[in-house]
Amino acid sequence: MxxxxxxxxxxxxxxxxxxxxxxxxxxxxERDFVVALYVIDPRLMAVAGPFRRRQLxxxxxxxxxxxxxxxxxxxxxxxxxxxxxxxxxxxxxxxxSAYWNDDVTPFSTWRDQRVRQALxxxxxxxxxxxxxxxxxxxxxxxxxxxxxxAFHRTWSTTTWDEWPEPxxxxxxxxxxxxxxxxxxxxxxxxxxxxxxxxxxxxxxxxDRYDEDRDxxxxxxxxxxxxxxxxxSLSPRTVAEAVGxxxxxxxxxxxxxxWRDWYAHLLHESPSMVTEDLNPKAHTLxxxxxxxxxxxxxxxFTGYPLVDAGMRELRSxxxxxxxxxxxxASFLVKDLLIDWRVGERHxxxxxxxxxxxxxxxxxxxxxxxxxxxxxxxxxxxxxTQSRRFDEKGDYxxxxxxxxxxxxxxxxHEPWEAPAEVLEAAGVRLGHDYPEPVVDHAEARERFLAxxxxxxxxxxxxDD
Length: 462
Ligand SMILES: Cc1cc2nc3c(=O)[nH]c(=O)nc-3n(C[C@H](O)[C@H](O)[C@H](O)COP(=O)(O)OP(=O)(O)OC[C@H]3O[C@@H](n4cnc5c(N)ncnc54)[C@H](O)[C@@H]3O)c2cc1C
What we know:
By secondary structure, this protein is an alpha/beta fold. It folds into 3 domains: 4-129, Rossmann fold (3-Layer(aba) Sandwich), CATH 3.40.50; 131-160 and 191-268, Serine Threonine Protein Phosphatase 5, Tetratricopeptide repeat (Alpha Horseshoe); 290-461, DNA Cyclobutane Dipyrimidine Photolyase, subunit A, domain 3 (Orthogonal Bundle). It is 49% helix and 8% strand. The protein has helices at 22-30, 42-47, 50-71, 82-92, 106-119, 148-157, 191-203, 209-212, 225-230, 235-242, 247-268, 290-298, 304-316, 321-334, 339-349, 355-366, 381-388, 393-398, 418-423, 439-461; strands at residues 4-12, 33-40, 75-79, 95-101, 123-126, 170-171. Strands 1, 2, 3, 4, 5 and 6 form a 6-stranded parallel beta sheet that branches. α13 (304-316) packs across α14 (321-334). The longest helix is centred in the C-terminal third of the chain and has 23 residues, at 439-461. The chain is globular. The mean pLDDT is 95.
């Protein structure tokens, strides 16, 4: 069958939803028949850890089910390289046009260009995974702001372009390959309905968001990053449901602006995936220390808050934002290990692991990015722990060997009197490690290395 204008193909990627999905809406309103395709790319499956892989498979199953329930059609699932699979599917089913939602990573840009060439059909693309598309939030000089607060001001007053309304095209009913079986439970209940339920539940808590969001022992944040990562919710749906009426709501929507900002930065500077974004950033002599790296990954640094976070990550694929900041800073500044090593580890394990957000945040923590994050601000893991996990409840959850310590000693057990440790059943160096570095010394070392690199860079400029 030759291609026909009546049949459109929607290539789903990170937008596994039917509501508020501009590519889907455009196709179903412009065509009589629509093929819904998902390509399982073995390259992407190989770099995703088990948590994200399972979440993807569960979300695909839920999406296929929703599609069937709502339209009688099925998700056409195929495995392989999209450069082969998308054109093959389009040709086999006679599609005369294609639709998808764009993505900002260098890999997707490279892949999509090749798919477009191979397809040789009209392609319509949309920015359905962001609130505002790259290039739409600019300074008066027409550039992307390198300072978040300035970006945020403009972002907050930029009007959203309209997304198309969905139509009632018939959906192709043959599912092709079976969706792979789950090899373990998905971290979160899957699908658009569950994502909406999470959003609804968060609306009960959102007014306290500004006060609770930094406390890892509480359920103070939305938990929506995974839904935004897989697209089971559109960020516009989330922002609209929340609004900006209270301090908590404003603070929350500001976080969605960070998400857009990092995507816009990556779209403009694809090399930031592997290179310091700030050209003036010091070229540091990073250390190669497999033993300390393993201690960090495993949650055995001797710093309880860092260890709690790294263990939560390892066992669940989640970590609270405040703890991500402290754990990332510890790797980069206390252990002097390259941010790229940490970024890769997080990206693999996080269920919400997402290139722009992960790279942007790691560079922010390392002080190699764009924003006003002074390189000499080194998080103190003990002060952070006392401030944000005051009673030690989060630490107790993830570092059970310290659970019997009181809420003072739990933040720095090496300072606790011997009798306190003994009463809590903790033998440092046996049940729980001594600190792998002394934070005060590590801080001095980091500042010395930075200042040396800056002197060298300045000498090079002369
Ligand atoms: C080192 C490091 C690595 C990170 N890697 C990722 C990642 O791979 N994927 C990811 O989605 N987030 C990442 N973040 C950002 C943040 O930690 C998570 O988005 C957040 O913890 C998810 O929980 P939540 O949905 O309950 O967040 P909420 O506090 O409820 O925030 C709502 C939404 O806003 C966005 N958001 C919040 N904080 C940030 C931020 N700092 N930067 C960008 N967007 C933000 C997320 O989409 C989030 O779902 C990282 C942060 C750090 C410090």
